[in-house]
Amino acid sequence: MDKNKLFQKLFESYTKVFFPTKSKQQCQSDVIAKWSEIKNDDDLQVKAETLLQEWRAIDMKKSDAIEFLGKASTNSSFKRTS
């Protein structure tokens, strides 16, 4: 894969997981730091895929937590009475 496309994919994945908790500028700084560590490695593709998998796992955990909280709030015994 083209390095520019790979970097873009990393940035988009990272931003999906950490924005708005982190600003887009902070996300970009974080990805640039990671990219600088791996960009010249022979196994760049493998390392990038590993990062993507880690970030997807975090995203899935967040999604599961949000779904759980949504279900918990709709099933709450603390329903408002009028």
Q: Your description of this structure?
A:
The mean pLDDT is 86. The protein has a domain at 1-7 and 23-68. By secondary structure, the protein is mainly alpha-helical. Helix 1 crosses helix 2. The chain has helices at 3-18, 24-38, 44-74. The chain is built from 3 helices and no strands. 7% of the residues are buried. The chain starts with a helix and ends in an 8-residue tail after the last helix.
Question: Which secondary structure elements does this structure contain, and how are they paired or packed?
Answer:
Elements (H helix, E strand, L loop, with lengths): L2 H16 L5 H15 L5 H31 L8
Helix pairs in contact: 1-2, 1-3
What key phrases describe this protein's structure?
single chain; 82 residues; mainly alpha; 3 helices; elongated
Quick structural gist:
The protein is an all-alpha fold. The protein has helices spanning 3-18, 24-38, 44-74.
Overall morphology? elongated
- Report the count of strand segments: 0
Largest sheet: none
Number of DSSP helices?
3
Strand content: under 5%
- Rg result: 18 Å
Q: Structural class per helix/strand content?
A: mainly alpha
Low-confidence segments, given as residue ranges, are none
Mean pLDDT: 86
> For the terminal residues, how far apart are their CA atoms?
59 Å
Helix content: over 70%
Order of helices and strands: HHH
